[in-house]
Amino acid sequence: MDVHVVVAPVFATNCCVVVADRRADDGRRDCVVVDPGAGTADAVSRLVEDESLRVRAVLATHGHVDHTWDAAELCARHDAPLRLHARDVYRVSDPFGTIGLGDGRLGAQAAAVSDALTQALADFGRTPREYTAPARVEPFDGDGDLVCGDVTLRARHAPGHTEGSTLYVLEAEGVVLSGDVLFAGSVGRTDLPGADLEAMLATLRDVVGRLDPAWQVVPGHGPTTTVGRELASNPFLPR
Fold first, then answer.
1. pTM to 2 decimals?
2. What is the CATH number of domain 2-233?
3. Structural domain boundaries of the chain?
4. Where are the transmembrane segments (predicted)?
């Protein structure tokens, strides 16, 4: 399978298009779209058209809105469902409320993130009121294979950044789509609503720490890296 990365103009979220090798009788190949941040829908749709692809599903590594803003648009254009872990489904209907927009009770850190996201959207010509939730949401739970036409990814529940954070693993290709669990040189923050430091530490030890060191990591933001490089140098990972 091939992995194409489209970087969103808002918060530079890495949107990944995972494409199957097999071409169907009509000449098209199946694909899934992972983490469609704000401003990615047109670029993804052009890629789908140019490469003769068929979108079987839109996936989210977690429910934060910088990873799901264009999900409704892509799902509608390509008649596909949004799939994400069941524990993050509640975020899709109220993504700004779940990170504290307009709610000082959730603390200064959540307010700062909400303000930064609102400003980034404004710079792109959008407002939180324009967000639309996808019409079809198909949750999954736990670990296991997600079969989306000819594309199969292994979901690994990796809570900590959010309750439903998930790694998507392409084992044959040696690629991990890590969302906001693991970055090059860092890990996802645990000071936002629904985050859990103890759960994150367990994820880093028991999930990330057991991945194949040779695998490539495509994080939710920033440059690609490898599992081995992060195990050797990332200060947040257990030695």
1. 0.93
2. 3.60.15.10
3. 2-233
4. none
